[in-house]
Write a structure and sequence with these properties.
Length: 123
């Protein structure tokens, strides 16, 4: 089965940058969709960014457009989320997933597998 391990989270001042990593096993980032979600305290899990492999296009949630970039390294079988211009409202646990969605990409219930998450705190 698919296994995902997120890393790279931490504490950063507002306006700063972080890059998160998602190491994938049981599938390949070159052949399957890769998606980042986040969940802040008391909030629903929110779709952040997606790579749709059929077209290679990238899609982003409205709250992060222009600030976050999703990418991948096929040799390392790893996806990344580069986050620039961080704001306090970006504080959340960030999760990744992979596979074929059972619905809209930004709906958490469309995905079967999840990593343990990595905490991002912006002050």
């Amino acid at each position: 089965h698919v296994q995902l391990v997120e890393s790279g989270g931490g504490s950063v001042e507002a306006g700063g940058s972080l890059t998160l990593s998602c190491a994938l096993s049981g599938d390949t980032v070159s052949s399957t969709d890769m998606v980042w979600f986040r969940q802040g305290p008391g909030k629903e899990r929110e779709g952040v960014a997606n790579i749709y492999k059929t077209s290679g296009l990238r899609y982003y949630g409205n709250s992060v457009k222009g600030r976050f970039t999703i990418s991948q390294d096929n040799a390392k079988n790893t996806a990344y989320l580069q986050m620039n211009g961080l704001k306090p409202e970006d504080t959340a646990i960030y999760y990744c997933t992979a596979g074929v969605p059972g619905g809209n990409w930004y709906d958490p219930s469309a995905w079967q597998y999840w990593g343990q998450g990595t905490q991002v705190t912006v002050s």
